[in-house]
Design goal:
about 550 residues, 7 helices, mainly beta, four-stranded antiparallel sheet, five-stranded antiparallel sheet, 4 domains, Thrombin, subunit H
């Protein structure tokens, strides 16, 4: 049963100093999705912002979002995508969290945990020689630090707790506590059996107050991606006291909704559903194991990584990592904020007064962004050719990813302004070696909308070694926008006595769907050259350049 209560929770507004407003304005992400009006802090006419495609200040839970910029720099963005703070000398390998004292706790490079102060100085670190620390780290109520490691044999994971001096306080070995099935896999020598990817310390909650000892304060909520399971560990006995597995597929980020939030005490998670080709956010009532709320949409899919965060007003912040997209949804599934950018990993939203240094800054100007009626973002994995059977080959002095079969079909969801990038051709050396005097191949690419028996040829080209060896072209897919379609390749040999199978003598390169005006699937952040920005003063251009430097977009 869907619950839709959405109490409004807002932080006290403060005035943002002009210098902070100047330092926070930035242009980011994909210019093809630019829908935002220009953000104009007092006295400065800056270029339009392009990363934020949707923002409804009346419905979104406004705050600052922590994510990565280029070169893996931790960066705080406001609701209009402007940079408020960048830790320039910090590089993050995996998880990062902004603590209540404004320090940054993270899994850093060099297989270590690091805590930085507001100015980027290292104030604490912890290393385990030769051991991989991965996926998650939390600062506990006691002040200790808990994290996940992969055991040196590479088979299973441990959860480790250390104090401020680095002394080990507690350890949980998944290979010993996850049942006979895991132990059998260990004995068989399987690798990466458990793949733990999130941990949370349970605090006071409605279930514990009702007498359910499984969810008492201090127990640990865990997600195991490769076992498709979330579970709770009793901190004292180290036994698994609750588990949930229903239809999970490579899930991430099991979180108990805190007291004071909508549906407090329920557990929410990001179910990647790689096999289903469509992700879903699930909310489970752990007292009944009933799924009480879910979110999915046609264009939503991340094959790996990704997180969700419950917000105080009932909204959910979602990071679709493989798509480079962060978005906020209401309980009715309405997207009230969306930020499209190339570096999204595990974003987290913080209140404007989350910690003392943020409180000093106060909230920036919040400018509503209304997407055009036809706007619908489609996560990249849904419009990529998913035939993984490719191999790298050298053809005509170029390394190409070649499909192992010349005939095959794939279903994709077509984004707006899409084109299909094609490259196919002959292998003249192989044809010559086989002694084929008269050899030709007819290459065809056909398309069929989902549920339709009609199939149309997008490409029908015959190549001969003495005429043309290869063909590179783009096919316009705009008439199929927001439709699921089936695309099929075929390469038919032509001529008497020639081998019917064309694999040795012809090739299809890995197909790619791209966005007109730029390859979104492979894009790197680009920005308008400074000299092309007519009408801006030298001072404005210099400010803009510094903002881009802060993001790492320019040297």
């Amino acid at each position: 049963m869907m619950r839709t209560a959405r109490p409004s929770v807002h932080c006290t507004l403060r005035v943002l100093p002009l210098l902070v407003a100047l330092a926070s304005a930035v242009a980011v992400a994909d210019t093809d999705l630019a829908t935002a009006p220009a953000a104009q802090p007092a006295g400065l006419n800056l270029p339009p912002l392009t990363g934020v495609t949707v923002y409804d200040p009346t419905k979104a839970m406004s705050g600052l979002t922590l994510d990565l910029a280029q070169s893996r720099k931790p960066t705080l963005f406001d609701m209009n995508g402007r940079v408020v703070r960048t830790w320039h000398n910090v590089r993050i390998r995996d998880r990062m969290r902004l603590l209540d004292n404004c320090n940054l706790l993270a899994i850093g490079r060099g297989r270590r945990l690091v805590e930085y102060d507001w100015n980027g100085n290292v104030v604490w670190e912890h290393r385990l020689n030769g051991i991989l620390i991965h996926h998650d780290v939390i600062r506990m109520e006691s002040g200790n630090t808990m994290f996940i490691i992969q055991r040196s044999d590479g088979q299973t994971d441990d959860i480790v707790e250390v104090d401020r001096e680095g002394s080990e306080i507690w350890r949980w070995r998944s290979g010993e506590h996850m049942g006979e099935a895991v132990k059998r896999l260990v004995r068989r020598g399987e690798m990466e059996i458990t793949h733990l990817n999130s941990i949370r310390e349970l605090v006071d909650n409605r279930l514990a107050r009702a007498g359910d000892a499984r969810f008492r304060t201090g127990n640990i909520l865990v997600s195991s991606r490769d076992l498709n399971m979330i579970f709770v560990i009793d901190k004292e006995t180290k036994e698994i006291v609750w588990r949930f597995t229903e239809r999970l597929d490579g899930q991430h980020e099991a979180v108990m909704i805190p007291d004071g939030f909508v549906n407090a005490g329920n557990i929410i998670l990001f179910n990647n559903r790689t096999r289903r080709q469509g992700s879903v956010i699930l909310e489970v009532d752990p007292s009944t194991d009933e799924v009480v709320w879910r979110y999915e949409s046609m264009g939503f899919f991340s094959t790996a990584k990704s997180v969700e965060q419950p917000l105080p007003n009932g909204n959910i912040l979602v990071t679709s990592s493989n798509a480079g997209r962060i978005f906020e949804i209401t309980r009715d599934g309405e997207i009230v904020w969306e930020f499209v950018r190339p570096y999204s990993l595990r974003a987290e939203r913080y209140a404007y007064d989350h910690c003392p240094e943020l409180a000093k800054l106060g909230p920036p100007n919040e400018i509503a962004v209304r997407a055009p009626s036809e706007h619908r973002h489609i996560d990249r994995a849904l419009y990529r050719w998913r035939d993984r059977k490719t191999k790298l080959e050298m053809i005509a002095l170029r390394n190409l990813k070649i499909l192992k079969k010349n005939d095959g079909c794939d279903s994709i969801l077509v984004p707006a302004s899409a084109e299909l990038l094609l490259h196919f051709g002959l292998r003249p050396f192989a044809i010559e070696q086989a002694g084929l005097a008269d050899y030709a191949v007819r290459f065809r690419l056909s398309i069929s909308p989902e549920g339709s028996a009609d199939r149309s040829d997008l490409v029908d080209v015959t190549l001969r070694p003495d005429e043309e060896l290869s063909n590179q072209t783009r096919v316009d897919l705009r008439s199929y926008t927001h439709q699921w379609v089936s695309l099929c390749t075929d390469a038919e040999a032509i001529g008497e006595g020639v081998p019917e199978k064309t694999r040795k003598f012809a090739f299809w390169e890995h197909l790619r769907v791209i966005i007109r005006g730029g390859d979104e699937a492979e894009s790197q952040p680009e920005d308008t050259p400074l000299e092309d920005l007519e009408g801006f003063t030298d001072e404005e251009l210099e400010v803009r350049k510094q903002h881009l430097k802060a993001l790492g977009y320019v040297d």
